Amino acid sequence: MTKMYFAENPDAEHDIHELNVQLLGQNMTFLTDAGVFSKKMIDYGSQTLLKYLDFHKQESVLDVGCGYGTLGLTLIKAKEVKATLVDINLRALDLARQNADRNQVLATIFQSNIYQNIEGRFHHIISNPPIRAGKQIVHEVIAGSHAHLLDGGDLTIVIQKKQGAPSAKAKMEEVFRNCEILKKDKGYYILRSRKEI
């Protein structure tokens, strides 16, 4: 059985695509490949999430499960944030590094199994979590974020209702004691929790 996009070393035969898209008013170019999430188009969840991230210049952002870099790299270019991109998938990380060069942005990109290799704390953590990896992984993305946020920082995720948005919202409320639904769009929920000061 072919390894999924949340595997460390996907074994799918390479199938390189180039996507030229406009995100947050920026012309972005992404190389994609088989064995990574959403290789043929920027998925609707990521596009929707980007619209509701009201970040400011020089704020620090951690993109958990960054894939080939859609969220983090776009935010660097559009909002001039300082972004760290992590994923377990080595193929995705290689693409993210190439895409940083292609879009002429500087990003910190390295392998981490969720928060395993993360040091320090951030203003914002974002994720389009790997739903197919299972509920436990999604809940680890949520639970682990609290320790890596600055006081007053926030976690924002996108998740489809049918793929577990209600349970993700409940987990965020358990961890942070708050969770706001920023938007519901075509079954996708944008959920945000803030770390209380």
From TrEMBL:
Residues 27-192 form the Methyltransferase small domain. Its EC number is 2.1.1.172. GO terms for molecular function: 16S rRNA (guanine(1207)-N(2))-methyltransferase activity. CDD domains: AdoMet_MTases. Signal peptide: none annotated. Keywords: Methyltransferase, Transferase. It holds the Pfam family MTS. InterPro entries: RsmC/RlmG, SAM-dependent_MTases_sf, Small_mtfrase_dom. This is Ribosomal RNA small subunit methyltransferase C. The lineage of its organism: Bacteria, Bacillati, Bacillota, Bacilli, Lactobacillales.
